[in-house]
Amino acid sequence: MVRFDLAYGRGTTAVEVPEGNFVGTLDPRPMPGVQLPHAFDEAWRRPFGMEDPVAAFQRGDRVVVVVTDHTRKTPTRLVFPLVWERLKDRVRSEDVTLLVATGTHRSPTGEELEAMLGDLRRQFRVVVHECDCDVVEIGKSSRGTPILVNRLVADADRVITLGHVGMHYYAGYSGGRKNILPGVAGRATIEANHAQLCDPRSTACVYRGNPISDEMVEAARLVGVDFLVDVVMNAKGEVAKIVVGEPEAAHAAARGFWDEHSIVSIRDKADLVIASAGGHPKDIDLYQAYKAQYTAARAARDGGIVCLLAACPDGIGHRVFQDWIERSACPADVLSLLEKEGFRLGGHKAVYHAQDLARIDVYLQSELPAETVSRFFYRAASSPQVALDAARERFGPTYRVLVMPHAGETYPVPEGARL
User: Which residues, including other chains, have CB under 8 Å from residue 107's CB and lie 6 or more apart?
Assistant: First the structure.
């Protein structure tokens, strides 16, 4: 047997694949962790696209630092103090606000904020963005979308974003401009932007020419982000790369690093793909964990099986996602809802899920009630063995298994394909 202990919630779950059926692991190429203070110092001294990130900052400036929320692993409590060391001689701590970019996610709990920010909560003002409250229009995108953002961002003299870069299944990549849109944008702006996800160019690992990403870039430019700090995390949750600088130039460097390590070519698709969403917080709910299903499905053959390991302690994670599934008797009904009602944020993930299920079956090991798992058109799995048994029954004793220990951070592409 080939044994794995895959991340699941705040712990792990064991997987044992018969040696004769195991055809490989799909995982990012090794990304050694860096010593953060040293790596930050190097990045600060060589910022991308600019000479001095804080040259224009001055005493009295209202500074907003947009940071990612509890669904991301960005080590804000470690990184921002390094930024503050370079900033504190120019601005006062009382003029700095840390704005948590929730987009349409729920607000983080006090415990989650403490884990994200630690002592920063007591040193600086902390505000959690609410997409339905206190947003103002700062202009329109080239396609006419009103760009609504948090008033604090609109009124700020200086804006910094701090995030992490990885694959995003319809925005191309996370990080950079995503801290603004959807991070601190109004719901109407987010929905108008995400409505473009049916465009075939709105897909993973496509940045320029991706209409969702392009509009996000426009929103960040309208805000006037002064500089960004983005990290790329390795499979152990360590910082493997840190970039500082002009938002577009620095983000380009980070996503180039991610591509080099995390786009993985495959010669043949598998009968069964066993995929971990990456553990907490990546599997905090089904809405977040779906990203791992998206990548794993691309490594499975037509008619194949994906076994998704995602604890989902917070449940589904989005009311529209849940509503569209609960109003559908089968996956095809979800696509009918899209035709009848048009795009709705949250419903888009139900559509992606339905499209996956048109060509594969998905077994889900989670903490969700069995009836919820079934209602979402999954097959419940008490362990990965359930999916292994199903694959053997469907494909015979020579069935082929791929394992994706960090599915949300691994993007499979056919051998020789160009993105």
Answer: 100, 128, 130
pLDDT of residue 217: 98
Alpha helices in 21-141, H assignment, sequence order = 36-45, 76-87, 110-117, 120-123
pLDDT tens, residue by residue, 371-419: 999 999 999 999 999 999 999 999 999 999 999 999 988 999 987 666 6
Contact 382, 15 (CB under 8 A): no
pLDDT in tens, 383-395: 999 999 999 999 9
Convert 43-54 to b/e letters by CB count within 10 Å (16 or more is b). bbeebbebeebb
Terminal Cα distance for the chain, rounded: 35
Report the alpha-carbon distance of residue 10 to residue 279 in Å, rounded.
6
Residue 42: both structure tokens together: 């190097």
pTM of the model: 0.87
Quote the distance between the C-alpha of residue 303 and its chain's center: 27
Q: If you classify domain 2-28+265-414 with CATH, what class do you get?
A: alpha beta
- Give the residue carrying structure tokens 């559908």: 328
Which positions ≥6 away from 65 have C-beta within 8 Å?
80, 83, 96, 97, 98, 99, 159, 160, 161, 162
| Cis peptide bond N-terminal to 405, omega within 30 | no
CATH 3.90.226.30 domain range(s) in the chain: 2-28+265-414
- The top-level CATH class assigned to 54-225 is alpha beta
